[in-house]
Design brief:
This is Phytoene desaturase, neurosporene or lycopene producing. GO terms for molecular function: oxidoreductase activity. Keywords: Carotenoid biosynthesis, Oxidoreductase. The structure is a single chain. The protein folds into 3 domains: 238 residues, 3-Layer(bba) Sandwich (FAD/NAD(P)-binding domain); 91 residues, no CATH class; 126 residues. Helix 1 packs parallel to helix 17 and helix 4 crosses helix 8. It contains 17 helices and 20 strands. The protein has 522 residues and is an alpha/beta fold. The longest helix is centred in the N-terminal third of the chain and has 21 residues. Strand 3 and strand 4 form a beta hairpin. The protein is globular and about 65 Å long.
Length: 522
């Protein structure tokens, strides 16, 4: 039995690995010349840049994936109990980071964020002593949301509204549906602490002002398992996933963009590539963007539930401007900066409204500055650093002309890092620059309107309301990745892959787990 997987992002590769372990003949088709999708790697002049995700949390999910073996797709248990990362180490080296992030404020102060409770309290005491008690209460609420939303419901596929209604009372009791920033503001009075404990939803494309408070659980996901980095970059992790897939007999083809999902009698029977080649399959898994999958890859006559109107009404996440740059080291970069840096603007709420609601390009901006050569110098030539700075911007529904403004925005972003003192003298030390805009996400990664994270994780696009991992329109079509349940972020797309593999195992009669553990039955 053959399965075709469209896209070699982390979600697509994770699903392909589990399907290959189930005994299916698996072929992954990738548009780009190499693997990774959003986690593609850009190399130039001796520099290596991860183009996408760099924050790795929940290493046990990787261990679970790398431990799959023929006949054992490890669909259960949900949270592996192995000590250490013995299987992972065969494929990639993962190292913990401390701090997880250094959060910089425009007044020159900073907050070092990690999973040491006493350290967090000392940082709060240093910057906002009035909020120490507030943290204690926030911590209790975030832990309860983590236990319910992640540990208990994390792998639940919400295939119908009834699935959501069963857990709604518990979520309401935990105040999980109010906006995250509103919840955080109940516990913290200081504006800096409100930013520290709400910004993380931006890492999965969510506006802190509108995502459900359920996402406060991210605090305890990181408290529980830490934040890690793959030596060699996220690209090294992707290469490990490709190797694992090939060991299980799966194959991957690059430069193979899919033009259409083929159907017969409302059942997926294969795909056709851009060059006209037809590839037959017994089932198709799409790791592509939601609107692209239903709006471009499926013929209109094959769609009922996911109509043009429904796709048009989908609220998409913001996009990103990312500047990749190599520069001569001065030797003091590690004094002010860390591996992950969050550079906040003097505005917070209004900046978020500009990006998510007004869809305008503000004069000021916030940065996520990634400086991985502080951890792994091999990513740059000797005496140099490789870095990228990421700026949230509106998606292409804004009408911004990035072909015109992109180069000047690159200069503005890098000059800010120089003149604000984060990387003094940067403009004179630059040896290489490259940048991507929402146009890259739209035209290269096939993300509708250049969104960077799929449907925005607002309440009415969460759980049952988020696109399902089994198509309602076409039998034999399954979905995986950030556009689908449970959402964006590396842990979520790996969870998505396991959920999708479960659905396929159930539909094919290949499941081996106790019946009462199975979820999301049609």
């Amino acid at each position: 039995m053959r399965a075709v997987v469209i896209g070699s992002g982390v979600g697509g590769l994770s699903a392909a690995i589990r399907l290959a372990a189930m005994g299916l003949e698996v072929l992954v088709l990738e548009k780009l010349p190499g693997p990774g999708g959003r986690a593609f790697v850009h190399q130039a002049q001796g520099f290596t840049f991860d183009m996408g995700p760099t924050v790795i949390t929940v290493p046990p999910f990787l261990e679970d994936l790398f431990a799959t073996s023929p006949g054992n797709p490890r669909l259960y248990p949900d949270f592996p109990e192995e000590e250490g990362l013995t299987h992972t180490e065969r494929y990639v080296k993962i190292v913990p980071l401390d701090p997880f992030y250094r959060i910089h404020f425009p007044d020159g102060t900073h907050f070092d964020y990690n999973n040491d409770r006493e350290h967090l309290l000392s940082e709060i005491q240093r910057l906002a002593p009035e909020d120490v008690e507030g943290y204690n209460r926030f911590e209790a609420r975030a832990k309860a949301l983590f236990q319910k939303g992640f540990l208990e419901l994390g792998f639940t596929h919400f295939g119908s509204l009834l699935d959501l209604l069963r857990v709604a009372p518990d979520l309401l009791r935990l105040d999980a549906v109010r906006p995250l920033f509103s919840l955080v503001s109940r516990y913290f009075r200081n504006p800096k602490m409100r930013q520290v404990f709400s910004f993380e939803s931006l890492l999965i494309g969510g506006n802190p002002l509108s995502v459900p408070a359920l996402y406060a659980m991210i605090h305890f996901v990181e408290r529980n398992w830490g934040v890690h980095f793959a030596m060699g970059g996220t690209g090294a992790l992707v290469r490990g996933l490709v190797r694992k897939l090939e060991e299980l007999g799966g194959r991957i083809r690059f430069n193979a963009p899919v033009r259409r999902i083929l159907t017969r009698g409302r059942r997926a029977v294969g795909v056709v590539l851009q060059d006209g080649e037809r590839i037959e399959a017994d089932l198709v898994v799409s790791n592509a963007d939601y609107v692209h999958t239903y709006g471009e890859l499926l013929a209109p006559e094959d769609r009922f539930w996911h109509s043009d109107l429904r796709l048009k009404r989908t609220r998409l996440s913001m996009s990103l401007f990312v500047a990749y740059f190599g520069f001569r080291a001065r030797g003091d970069e590690g004094e002010r900066l860390r591996h992950h840096n969050v550079l906040l603007s003097h505005r917070y709420e209004e900046l978020l409204r500009d990006i998510f609601q007004r869809k305008v390009l503000p004069d000021d901006f916030a940065h996520y500055l990634h400086l991985p050569t502080l951890t792994d110098p091999s990513l740059a030539p000797p005496g140099h650093h490789a870095a990228y700075t990421l700026v949230p911007v509106p998606h292409n529904g804004s009408g911004l002309d990035w072909g015109r403004i992109g180069p000047e925005y690159l200069e503005k972003a890098l000059r800010y890092l120089d003149e604000a003192g984060y990387l003094p003298g940067l403009m004179d030390r630059l040896v290489y620059t490259h940048f991507v805009t929402p146009d890259y996400f739209q035209w290269t990664l096939n993300s509708h309107l250049g969104n960077a994270f799929g449907p925005e994780p607002v309440l009415w696009q969460t759980a049952s309301f988020r696109p399902h991992n089994r198509s309602e329109d076409v039998k034999g079509l399954y979905l995986v990745g950030q556009s689908y349940q449970p959402g964006a972020g590396l842990p979520s797309v790996m969870m998505s892959a396991k959920m999708t593999a479960r659905l396929i195992a159930h539909d094919l009669g290949l499941e081996r787990a106790p019946k009462e553990l199975l979820e999301a039955r049609a």
